[in-house]
Each structure stands twice: as C-alpha cells, then as structure tokens.
Amino acid sequence: MVLEIRGLAHDYFSGTALSQIDLSLGKGQHSLLLGPSGSGKTTLINLICGLLTPQCGTIRICGEDMGAARGSEADDIRRRHVGIVFQTLRLVSALSLFDNLLLAQRLQRGGKDPATARALVAALGIEHRIKARPAELSQGEAQRAAIARALVGEPALLVADEPTSALDGENMRRVADLLLENAERTGTTLLIATHDERLKDVMPNVVELTPPGAQRRVA
Amino acid sequence: MIGLAFAYLRAHPLTTALNILLLGIAVTMLVLLLQFGRQVGDRLEQDAAGIDLVVGAKGSPLQLILSSVFHVDQPTGNIPLSSQQLLKRDPAVERVIPLALGDNFRGYRIVGTDEGLLGLYGGSIEMGSLFDAPLEAVLGASVAAEMKATLGQKFLGSHGLSGDAENGGSDHDHAAFETVGILAPTGTVLDRLILTSVESVWDVHGIAHDHGSQEHADDDGHAHEGDAHDSADGHAHDDEHADDHGEEEIAAVGLPGTNPLQARSAGPQRELTALLVQYRNASAAIRVPAMINRQTEMQAAVPAIETARLLSLFGASLDGARLFAWLLAATGGLAIFVALLNVARAREGDLALLRVMGAGKMRIFGTILLEGVLTAAAGALLGIAAAHLLIGLAANAFATIGDLGIEPFAFDPLEGVIFFAVLGIGAVAAVIPAARIFSIDLARTLARAT
Ligand SMILES: Nc1ncnc2c1ncn2[C@@H]1O[C@H](COP(=O)(O)OP(=O)(O)OP(=O)(O)O)[C@@H](O)[C@H]1O
Ligand SMILES: [Mg+2]
C-alpha cells in the first residue's frame, strides 16, 4: 500500500474539519479527492504530508507511520516518498524555474538530472520559461512548474492540492494527462484534491468529502 | 545550498550591495589603521635603531628627532662645528655622526655627513664609490631608482627640504653635485637620502670652509647678524621668517648663528644641523644628555623617548579611530540583520516550501547564516583590497606617506583576524533571522502564502 488511512479525524478550534476517514491507495491507484470548498481537502493533505499531526487515526505511507512521526521523522518520510503540489505556493522565489527543479531533485534524490527535468518541462509546455523567475510566470505556467517540481523527485505518492484550478479547460486536461502519464512511468500514485468535477473524466477513483465531516467513498 | 544563498542575495542586489559597502568601508578603515600603525611603528623603530642620542639646536626635541632621524620635519636650527669634537672627545661616546641639512633634490634630502651614517643603517655601496671630493654625492637606493640615476650624472640641489616649488628656494646653480655612488637598498630612511660630505653642503651655501673666510656670507642673501636674541633662545634664524625666503631657511646650513660654546659670535659659521650619537657604555646615557643640556646651548634628545611619545600620541588616536571602525563594522552587521529580518517574513513561504521539498531545518538555517557570512566575506575582501589600494595611491600621491616608506601590499596576519571577525559579525547578524525557520508552522504558512 502506498497510502493507508484508518479512522482519521481532525478538529480545529473552530470545529471539526475531518472525521472518520478511511482510505487505501495501492500502487498506481490514482484517486481524486473531490469536495466543495471547506470540506477539508487541504486539511487531509496536510495530515498525509505530516505537516499536521492527526488527533485520531493512523496514516501510513509506503508502510511508514506518518501519523506517529514527529519532527524530522515526518520530514524524512515526506522527503523519501511524497511529492507535493500546493494550492498557492509553488516555487522558491529566488530561483529560476529550472533551478527550482534541480534543487528539488537534489533534495529528494541527492543528485541532479537535468535531462529528466528538461523532458518534464517540455512535456508540460513550459520549456521556453525555464530561465524565468517564479514572479514572472503566469498563474497557469506557475502551476505547471509546481507540478514539474513535485514530479522531478519521482516520489511514490504525489499529492496535489488544486493543481488545475488556475488552468483553462485545455491545459487542465493536458496537466491531468501529464500527471497520469508520468505517474505510469515512475510508478507514482496520485492523490489529487480538487473541487473541479471535470477531472472525474480522467481519474478513475474518486474520494468525495462533504462538509461538515461526513464522508463517502466511491469505488 | 550555497547556490541558494547566492540566489537570495542576488534577489535583493541593492540591499546586498549596500551591506557589502558598509562592511567594506569599516574593514578598509580597520586595515588602514592596522597597516599605518604597524608600518609606521616598525619604520620608526628601524630608523632610530642604533642612535642613542641626537644633539641639535634647542627647540622641540620631537622636531629634532623627526628632522635628523626620520628626515620628515624642519631642523631646529644649527649647532657649531666644534660640538662634534666636544662629543668625540668624550670617552663614553662610541660614534658621532654629523648631519648638515638644508637642501633637497626633487624632495630627496641632501645630507652632509660622513661614512658613519652608512654604518649606522648597514648601508653599502652598490655601484661606484663613497663621496670623497667636494660636491660628490651618493644616492640612496630609492632616490637612484626614482631619478633613474647613473654614475657621473650631475644634479643641482634646491634650497629647502621639500621639493615643492612653492616652498623650495632657488637652485644652487653655481654648484652641481656629481653622482659618484649608489647605495644598496636597506629598507630604512637611508634609501631616500642623498649623501654627501659636510664640506660639500658648506660649499653649496658659499661657506668657505677651507680658509675660514666669511666673505661669502651675504652672497646668497642670507645676511644676518648673530645678535643677542639669537643667542638667548637658541633659535638661530628667527629673524628670517620675516624675509622672502620663508621657512626653509631654518634648515639652511652654514648660516650665521650662535656658537653656544662661545656665548656670542657674528657672521657665518661652519655649522652642523645635528649630531647622531652612539654610546660606548650605558653610563653615557645619564651623563651625556645632562652635560649637553646644561653646559651648552644645544639640546640632547633621545630617539627612543621621542619615538615612544610619538607612538603613544599616535596610538591614542589610532585607538579612537579603531573603536569607530569596529562600531562601523557592527553597524554593517546590524544592516545585515535588518535586511534579513525584513525579508524573513516575505520569505517564510519559500522556507516552508523548501522544508516540504525535503530540506532539513538545519540546512535552511545554515543557508540563511551563509547569506550573512557571504555578505560579510564580500565586504571584508572588498575592504582589504580597497585599503591596500588606498595605501598604494596615497604613497604615490603624498610625499610624506611615501617618505615613511609604507609598503602598500604587505599583508599583515592581523588582517586575517579582521577578516574572520567580520565573518563572525555576518554570522551573528544572521542568527536571529535564520532561527525563524525553527518556529515556522508549515501548514499555516503554506495555506497562507501566495
Ligand atoms: N488553520 C486552521 N485553523 C482553523 N480552522 C481551519 C484551519 N484551516 C482550515 N480550517 C477550517 O477547516 C475546514 C476545512 O478547511 P480546508 O482548508 O481543509 O478546506 P478545503 O477543502 O481545502 O477548502 P478549499 O477548497 O477552499 O481549499 C474549513 O472550515 C476551514 O475554515
Ligand atoms: Mg484547500
């Protein structure tokens, strides 16, 4: 199992964000995390990535217990197994697009592989922007760059929070296809959080989150 | 991660440049102070080595030392030729070296003396021979190099001790010196002197030493009466300040003055400017200066004492300036601190992302620390380079600095200490901004960041 979640729940002071989540993703079992705004998608992703500590339940990534990991242990599990694309934050601001990719490779793989990075940006259609600073990229370009950044490390699990929200229909499809294509190649399992129902067409599995708390699983 | 540190520094080029500049200025000051302090001290010590006592006309003892040991100030006046014999007769005195100053060639002082001066500084003839006949001159190594002098070359001395036209008097065109020898470099003041015999200096000034005639006295316009006023205070040429010859005449040799041993005299004398004395034994140190100061109209000054006085005066102002420079360096550190703190919040998102990408806290902490250290290193290197460049330029532009014989590209090990101290300032300045990485809440930061 790439990802295994049992009885997960999380409350903020303001109220319950997630309750009783069970989710298992085997290798190659790409899933869509679908739910309206405020349904807890980001919260779940933060828990999976070890950025938040669950109050209840377990999270295992590639067999390692992320839920119980503390501090640098969580960092380590994340670094070895998880690639992340965030809703807003995409690239390190001081580095060019391409340097961001090389840095990500270094951090996650321990070495640079410019050829792979180049192939990736070419496939994402941002090849002409590799020298650009993050601030000089359009929203869509930045989002594709963030996907490239998360993929260059070839992680076992790629979680993406609204990776296609800034893209138009055509680019959305293209990115979704690229995510799937790359996932096949590198054996990465995708978990994509979105409120964009259009992605249902491309992703086989859908996990639906409904606010507040209630959760339904669709095979 | 060093690439990332550079990238962040490049992201704010103006701030980075200003911080580097600020530290650079501080380091420039520190290195300049260090270099001047050390080189001047070394130089003074070296030039005064072996001279136990200087005997000259009454006046400021410091001025006497400066003029006759370091050859930078105007002499205090003249002393009678007989004083040389007086000291030579003293059994406690090993060596007496006469000095007759008054002229220069392109700012290099022409010193009437004997071979004793060479011995004092360990000088040796590299080419030619020592002066012998009247108007033969031996050039110090720096003088020869500067003049591109060859043996047999003739030159005219100018009146006064500095080369500038404003101050320099007329050329002594009736008496040209001939270069008969060139000295090997000694690294002392000797390198910048032109040596000749005392008699030659008298000749140039029209003082007839051969037959004791005084008829040339007025030839070059230095007519004065050696009056009671002169005798009273020992300043041989007070009156001359009023006339058109200006200050350089204080230095003129062979001018009418006072013979301190014979209370009064009139007319030009065969005189000397100062005597450099080396003792034979320690007892002389007590007796000889006391004898000179009490029983003659001359003064005896101890180079070691005056040099120490000079260095302590100099040292106090150096300490003040040094304190200021370190404060400036601290300000540079503060500027780095403020700059890093300013960007810290804007950068929180970046740092959180770096963490998510797999960079450990310590690694990111190190990167930010490195930014401070790199800025400091750039400032320190800039400062050290600028200081040495400035010394080089100053040595070329200002004769006095050149005269002190300051070496522009001699690196002091203490510059390494300054370098690492400044690196330390850079690191300390970056610690607090860098430490924020330990308190970043990743989930919140990533949710908020845009
Ligand atoms: N740090 C927080 N502190 C308190 N409450 C929070 C915090 N983060 C999220 N919440 C709340 O938890 C619930 C789930 O938020 P979450 O960000 O997970 O939703 P989401 O599905 O990602 O929404 P969106 O599609 O708008 O991004 C919301 O009601 C939100 O207000
Ligand atoms: Mg969200």
From TrEMBL, chain A:
The protein's UniProt keywords, in alphabetical order, are: ATP-binding, Nucleotide-binding
Every ABC transporter domain range: 3-218
Pfam families reported in the protein's UniProt record: ABC_tran
The molecular function terms in GO held by this entry are: ATP binding
**PROSITE patterns given in the database record:** ABC_TRANSPORTER_1, ABC_TRANSPORTER_2
**Chain segments annotated as coiled-coil in the UniProt record:** none
The protein's name in its UniProt record: ATP-binding cassette domain-containing protein
Q: Which organism is it from?
A: Pacificimonas pallii
Give the taxonomic lineage as stored in the record: Bacteria, Pseudomonadati, Pseudomonadota, Alphaproteobacteria, Sphingomonadales
From TrEMBL, chain B:
Q: Which residues form the ABC3 transporter permease C-terminal domain?
A: 323-440
Q: What is its main location?
A: membrane
Q: Where is this region: Disordered?
A: 211-246
* Membrane-related topology note: Multi-pass membrane protein
Can you tell which superkingdom this protein's organism belongs to? Bacteria
Protein name, please? ABC transporter permease
Q: What keywords are assigned to this protein?
A: Cell membrane, Membrane, Transmembrane, Transmembrane helix
**What is the organism field in this record?**
Pacificimonas pallii
A Pfam family assignment:
FtsX
PANTHER family (UniProt xref):
ABC TRANSPORTER PERMEASE, ABC TRANSPORTER, MEMBRANE PROTEIN
Q: Which InterPro entries match?
A: ABC-4/HrtB_transporter (IPR051125), ABC3_permease_C (IPR003838)
Location comes to: Cell membrane
Q: Glycosyltransferase: is it a keyword of this entry?
A: no
- Bias class Basic and acidic residues marks the residues at 211-244
Q: Where are the transmembrane segments?
A: 16-34, 324-343, 364-397, 417-438
